[in-house]
């Protein structure tokens, strides 16, 4: 296995690249074309870890990622929350009033509607955020800017014409760091916190009120379930898999009891990872209260 390399999806300067720099600053970040390529880089030993975005506080879960995680063969070993600070990036010497078009991924265009409208800038769709910055640098036109992370400006030699232009100032993306081998050890997060998270997927048995009964063990044992999502598998409406995050370690007696009860009502249950809760998780939860 190639040690000290972390793979991410996108061009250099993408928000996933920014997450790699922040959470694994001593590792070499390796760009990959797709999420599948990112996962394969770890499976094939070309990278030690993968940085994968799973959800955004504004736009919800990242499309297709929940289908990929259980089939990846990888294990979650850490999580990270990255504030999405969007910059308007232009070629050197550009002023905001020179810009008539801004290129970016559709999700970022939707997050800056107020700023674009205020400055009479037309949004145009690019392949992704960092790729748009690369295209702006290639064209060298003052009328065209990119919406991307400030890191992309550093990489492609662009000026940051405006920063923090997103409509929602708490816009945050959650990332999962994944490895070939699981790590079930109890460990602290970057600030010394000892709250552990457990992520798993399951399918309920074909019995009446199976999901209700399956969830009962978490309520009676006082387990905080921070996420529960369902999605179809194999394109079949009646084949539903559930993805869940809970606070706690599988060896904690209340968690062990809840998982034992869950197994009774499920046809399959797979733990995807056990990892320390990121310090910013509590901050995000406070914003939602």
TrEMBL record:
Location of the Prephenate dehydratase domain: 5-180
GO biological process, one term: L-phenylalanine biosynthetic process
Pathway it works in: Amino-acid biosynthesis; L-phenylalanine biosynthesis; phenylpyruvate from prephenate: step 1/1
Keyword Phosphoprotein: no
Reaction it catalyzes: prephenate + H(+) = 3-phenylpyruvate + CO2 + H2O
InterPro entries: ACT-like_dom_sf, ACT_dom, Chor_mutase/pphenate_deHydtase, Preph_deHydtase, Preph_deHydtase_CS
A Gene Ontology cellular-component term: cytoplasm
Domain ACT: 199-276
NCBIfam families: PRK11899.1
Listed name of the protein: prephenate dehydratase
Organism whose genome encodes this protein: Paracoccus aestuariivivens
